[in-house]
């Protein structure tokens, strides 16, 4: 694996090197052939060549390929010198250095200046003329004659003449050949099949005719013999109108090609000894100078003119596109845009505003907003008048306004307006541009929230009043308490005493606070109480005990609870139980009365010891507990309470004995083939016995079972109508339930062909079929954890992401929609009828809740719901149409097909997609 990778890397690297060497070779060959072409022209001095093509070829090659291909220029120059002129090696190397440095300098400077090789900008043409033609050519024209003088090939007094001719040759070569090569290599050679209309054919014929005329005029002017009369006239600039025409008609490419054509004809005429330059020049050098001046003027003029024309055309095209985009935005945008003049009259009303308010341009333009889109009243008139008067001085006061507006049909809507003042070039006020956004749904939601807030404030006030009442009751209760409360520390000091009954205090408060228990209480009671304080602090648990004090010659009994407040202090609560003690004595005295009372009860009462033997019984209804022939005094509980609950009975008895607390439970017994239910209370009587009180609750149990069954039915019926969280909230609070959800996916589905099917089936068959279909959908909705909202005839509405938000709500809805298509295909085969489903899905913000007080229904509101309904109604049977919002959430996991833009009622043009299926993993 690594060997193949290494080999592929070597092949790729060698391929790049090969391409690099091939391009260097191509540049060298082009330079060499350009030089051979220049020196092969008859009548041209080698050192004073009027146009030196290799200089332009070198600069164009590095501009097109990059500076790193400079070795091609150096090699081309070197081989031209060696093979063409055949000088010494010492003369060829400096020649290669000078030509390469000249090209590299020009390209480097142009790149730093942001030069574009298309020459379509005026600054590119100027930078090329200054740095590429004039400045860079100074390098080789300086170094070349210098090395020739140093080698003795030219005398020093001829240096400036040779340098001047060298500069002109290189400058003309760059000026003529570099733009030509740049244009040719950037020209897209494509075969096009234009629309052959009359205008296009006319333009082609005119262009061909002018091109022929240009060639003819240039040939006549520049190839005329010196003895001809025409050569004496100053006609050399006669082709200039054609160059201007080419620059305007074809841009930079036309200007470069036509100027090159004229240059070639002019050079050819001079070579053949004809044309105005030979006729006017006293010597061949003077004729060459005239030729070079001409070539420089026409080429420079054509480059600058073409760049100016192209730049203007691009600016005009950009302005035209911007205007088109502006018109599309204003006319077709989903925003209300209108303009008011200085008289507060509507002077512009875009298409969306016309659709939104219901007014046409003829009905609204020139009218005041008051009485048309604003309700006519004194407040609206004052607001408009104030805005028109003050917006110039205080524009920030009117930048954003929310107003209630009117549609043509009288419907009231809320619009958020963004206003901007319009001024002319002198800063004078000329009107107002207003951009509006429909915020009706938001305002409805805000009003609903305001109502909810008002209700919440009322409830808070009621609860605050309740708490205040409760606090007052607690204060009164505390004030009415007769208990004594002490705060005692670890050392037994009494730090604080609270008592509303001074008669219970052994000493006055002033004599007890700050004193020890030994100083407050008698010695015996003080030692016992101090011990309980230490126990509570060590165990950090409450200690309960009783004690008595002699107060005012009366014995007062107390029940005390000592609980730890911290690691150093306890709270001691003592309650007077003197009356309770008296009552206990009286109860003991009335024990016989209690037995008689118990015997009159209908409950069954047993006294059972720790070995589960019955030692006493007071049965008033024995047939409910055991057969009459059984003696229950001596047997154990397992022997006479037959059944499966004996182990449970034993555990309850042991628990009551161990915890010293009452144990309550329920049990059932089969008696005479009838099952009876009992409520039993087992209370400890002593260390080894308990009292068992059993009451027959069979009738209550039966009533509870029936009530529970009815409650379960009611709960299930409510859950079939409302989501479980909403149902729970509604049971606790019957007020309006409304919540806003920032991201919910809504699906509408409609059966297509159901109306025609209803004419073929009996009503009961039709209802059974619809029930079977929707029951299948309901089961699928429950499995996916979605929320069915409602069915409307043969339409079906489901939402994902509420009432409990979930991240994958869009994916769950997509799975539901795809499965519903498959289900409908099976039903179609089953009933052998044309029955399809049309599904629409959208994702967005909704408000969901329950309104009203009868026949509750959980419903959704918002623009997202309307758009989802439009997706279904504008959809295609057998397809799932989704909006852009849903597509953005599912495009990474599901396959879609983009549908052409459709016009959606109330929304305008929308881009929608068809959900095809899930992407393979």
UniProtKB/TrEMBL annotation:
Family: Belongs to the adenylyl cyclase class-4/guanylyl cyclase family.
Keyword Nucleotide-binding: yes
Membrane topology classification: Multi-pass membrane protein
Places the protein is found: Cell membrane
InterPro entries: A/G_cyclase, A/G_cyclase_CS, Cyclic_nucleotide_synthase, MASE1, Nucleotide_cyclase, PAC, PAS, PAS-assoc_C
Pfam families: Guanylate_cyc (PF00211), MASE1 (PF05231), PAS_4 (PF08448), PAS_9 (PF13426)
Protein name: Adenylate/guanylate cyclase domain-containing protein
Domain Guanylate cyclase: 745-872
PAC domain mapped to chain residues: 399-451
Residue ranges of every copy of the PAS domain listed in the record: 322-378
Domain of life: Bacteria
NCBIfam families from the UniProt entry: sensory_box
Species assigned in the record: Floridaenema fluviatile BLCC-F154
